[in-house]
Known about the structure:
Blueprint: H1 2-9, E1 20-23, H2 29-41, E2 46-51, H3 64-79, E3 83-87, E4 111-116, E5 124-129, E6 132-138, H4 166-184, E7 192-198, E8 211-213, H5 217-223, H6 233-236, H7 241-268, E9 272-276, E10 293-297, H8 315-326, E11 332-337, H9 350-363, E12 367-370, E13 373-374, H10 399-414, E14 417-418, E15 422-426, H11 433-441, E16 446-450, E17 458-460, E18 463-466, E19 469-471, E20 473-475, E21 496-498, E22 504-511, E23 514-521, E24 527-533, E25 539-543, E26 548-551, E27 554-557, E28 560-567, E29 572-577, H12 581-586, E30 594-597, E31 603-608, E32 613-620, E33 626-634, E34 636-643, E35 646-653, E36 658-662, H13 664-667, E37 672-679, H14 683-686, E38 693-695
Parallel strand pairs: 1-2, 1-13, 2-3, 3-7, 7-9, 10-11, 11-12, 15-16, 15-20, 30-33
Antiparallel strand pairs: 4-6, 4-8, 5-6, 14-22, 17-18, 18-19, 21-24, 22-23, 23-29, 24-28, 25-26, 25-29, 27-28, 31-32, 32-37, 33-36, 33-38, 34-35, 34-37
Amino acid sequence: MNDFLTRLQIPPAEYTIMPFWFLNGDLDHAEIRRQILDFKAHGVLGFVLHPRIGLPDRIGYLSDTFFDYLRTAVETARENDMHIILYDEGMYPSGSACGQVVAGHPELASRGIALTQQPLDGDIILAETDAGCLVERFSGGTIRGIHFGEDDGEPAAPKSADILNPAAVSRFLSLTHDAYYRAFAGDFGKTIIGFFTDEPSVLGRNTRDLFPWTRGFEDIFTSAGGSLAGLTGLFTGKENADTALYHELILKRECEVYYAALSGWCISHGIALMGHPHQSDDIEFERYFHVPGQDLVLRWIAPETGDLKGMDTVMAKCSADIARLMGRTRNSNECFGACCRDGNPWYFTGADMKWYIDYLAVRGVNLFIPHAFYYSLEGPRSQERPPDVGPGSIWWPHYMHWSRYMARLSCLMSETKYLADIAVLCRNRDMHADLVAPLFATQRAFQYIPESFKDECLVKEGRLHLRGRSYSAVVSAAGQYPSVSHDAASVPPDVLCIPPEPSLRCAPLCRDGIPFWFLVNAGNEPIDTLLQLPTDRYIGCMNLWDAKICAVPCESVTDGMQMTLHLDPRESRLLFLFDSREEWERHLPDKHICRTLGADIFTCISRNPDKQEIVYEALLPACDTDIELCLKAEEMCQLTVIAGQETYDAGTTCWTPHRFHLRAAWLCGHGARLVLTVTGSRANRYGQPVFYGLLPSEKAGT
């Protein structure tokens, strides 16, 4: 246990974050090297090479010039023991090679079916029904390109390819993947660890009133017993046996033609298929990823709306649980993209980022792919899916805290086994967010089992068994496995809260037979409860943000050990067990007197609107006790203590309540001057102005 806790404090390099690096400017070899070395200096030891809108016309997608710049990036990463994930498109969704698949081969463009009263020229009539003609046609879909003028709705937007057509997918692999391999074959499986495919779309973007199709699919559909006329139900909302068969066969087709082809290519070239499918609940597609993934974007879930309502709240468990079933070590999330508050570009706070990180990690995500680090913020580039959550953020000078925190969580969730006694049976795009919400709120761990694993499940002695794991209860909208309990409430919670705490998230974990409990406050108010663990051993705690370890005061009760739990908003803790009472006693925190002070001791001494900074000062008399400062402020706070001839860095915090611990040794025998710098959101530079600075101390805990 001690070895593992030490490992968590400074996690191995393999658990680094791997941000999207938007290659979106007029690239320069020296600047590419400078930025990569700057990443490394801030604890970022890998990245996704992501061609992005803003590249100049002189850098054509997949051109010799394009690869010349990427070669500099790969060489720099190799020289610095960093890793790269290649991105398979220019820009997204994947599968079209920035329009090159369709260029010269118009028959490979995306297709769909429509229900119309008046067929258009070029339509292929599939069925005539009372509701109208069911026709096959080109979807007219596009993707977002890499040059200005190639974005959604713009004339040069690249044409999307038919990823249900093996010929189109083969051409995509030849144009893109094979070209990357020719350029960097020696780095595959070494510096280059994966290929990222990004939310492939059968129809492409900017289409209406169509459902996915491909040439000849009518034969596949009717051979399976389907009636084409029955597909009018797709358009009228009256689902039937034919629409159910359609969804099943389209899913199978996309799996076999697109995902299986990419997965096989990656296996044969010694790297992993990475990225994510189109929707948050596309769990069946995840089977083809060597690193299953999802993306958390556009504030579809958010601190203000919670982590339990809506289809998108399942995304983290979607990737994590399929990885567990498939025996995959890692699963990823492309996180933070355009997650701004109130529709205000760049209004994305440290409190937001911490909430999203914890939401993902406590559900099992163990590879963070921040969206995004921008090569350039010049001109309109700063408004292209902001914010920059790396070098362009206010917390970049202190980013080592963030990169190490995410690496620490990745290590934790990679090197432990997740313990769940409840199985949740689901289908693709039907993952029952409403059914699992009570499980999260009552701290009951569960494992999603998608439909494709049904035939492997075995019921024995009242338990459901699958791939070396077993479950005493099953949750399912379909009511399967009647000999297994369907009462999830009969399963004891992993930790017992007195009183109940619906905002507490708990991941029960095990490593080498040793239990751990990963706790997160998912709410916006402090958690104060008695927490009971099912153990007779004494409890320890690691603060996962700063990796500090201490023993927790606790006492034996009838069914375990009980402790008092206080978790501020955005706090996370790892609980563990000591081997003996003596060891626990040695780690108990020192009992000392500590005073708490708030914002009322500070006065403003300067403002710098250009830097979005306000500086405050406070004078403290000599003091022989520790002092805790508890402040409410927007957004980032940095505190310096000047005591006599000595200057101390008391730390930097990125969310409210901002807590700083001032040691008595700093203050004893002389007074101290406190200098507090509050830095405001980058929205004040790139978006709409928002408040920053201190707020009254009486609100510091909210």
